[in-house]
Amino acid sequence: MAISKALIASLLISLLLLQLVQADVFENSQKKNGYAKKIDCGSACVARCRLSRRPRLCHRACGTCCYRCNCVPPGTYGNYDKCQCYATLTTHGGRRKCP
Questions:
Q1: Which stretch is the leader sequence (predicted)?
Q2: In terms of pTM, does the model score above 0.85?
């Protein structure tokens, strides 16, 4: 009787752990497939490019980077450490793509 109780308890714990692992895998796959919460790239890029000397170019580049990375660093310049994807995108010439 004691063995059957231990067996049932271990099976229940195993099933619970399996459910938790499957839920985590499902959540991660949704983020990779684009189901994560999207930010408003338009307003984020308006804030980022408000002091730019070339606002149209800045908005176009920022919009592309925001769409790919789903983040825009705060402020009008710098802060690339807040959004690593945004910081790593480069042009064909090796310069930073994102303002």
A1: 1-23
A2: no
